[in-house]
Specification:
Layout: H1 2-36, E1 62-63, H2 69-72, H3 76-90, E2 97-100, H4 105-119, H5 122-125, E3 142-145, H6 148-157, E4 163-165, E5 173-176
The structure holds zinc ion (ZN).
Length: about 190
């Protein structure tokens, strides 16, 4: 049955062609993605960071009303949610201050590089700090709350404003993540899970 054999061979050849094309497309897409992304700058010392990086020194914090890039470069939806939540929390004498908000990519990378030294490996560091190109802080979509009473308030009432604790090991880190009914998603164990 030469005709069937020919047909089968042709089908196999066509399939191979499709698979090869798919593989090539995948390769060229990821290669293009890699060349398009600019390299992340590595900063060796906090002395090289300033307010324009969203840098807030350890132990310091800023108010939501401060005119600093850490606050002003947060996405408007997050800022407005924080402002509304803060106004409500003020009735209970709880004041929101933030230890970190928007960060430049090189500031985030500095934190990540420091975490790799502290925890001994990139995988362990990723449980606590995202690399420079992956952080919600760099996108202005996350804040780290500075005080325990404000964290506690947000954990109880933040979802009404869309604000959720994302990682079980980061009681201070909040993002806009609640659904339309005001329910937060299940917390991830740590940064490496997300
Ligand atoms: Zn955070």
């Amino acid at each position: 049955m030469p005709l069937r054999a020919f047909s089968a061979a042709r089908t196999a050849a066509a399939l191979l062609l499709v698979l090869t094309a798919a593989a090539l497309t995948g390769c060229s897409a990821s290669a293009a993605g890699q060349t398009a992304a600019p390299p992340v700058e590595h900063v060796s010392s906090a002395d090289q960071l300033g307010p324009d990086d969203g840098y807030i020194p350890d132990g310091e914090s800023v108010a939501l009303t401060d005119d600093v890039p850490a606050v002003t470069r947060l996405v408007p939806r997050l800022r407005s949610a924080l402002d509304r939540a803060a106004a409500s929390a003020a009735h209970r004498d709880v004041t929101f201050t933030i230890a970190d908000g928007w960060r430049s990519e090189r500031y985030q990378q500095y934190l990540f590089d420091r975490a790799v030294v502290k925890y001994g490996s990139t995988s362990e560091a990723e449980r606590w700090v995202k690399p420079g190109d992956q952080s919600k802080h760099v996108r202005g979509e996350a804040v780290d709350i500075a005080t325990a009473d404000a964290m506690d308030w947000l954990n109880r009432f933040g979802a009404e404003y869309g604000l959720c604790q994302i990682y079980a090991n980061e009681a201070w880190h909040f993002e806009l993540a609640a659904d339309a009914d005001g329910n937060c998603p299940a917390q991830l164990t740590d940064g490496s899970a997300g």
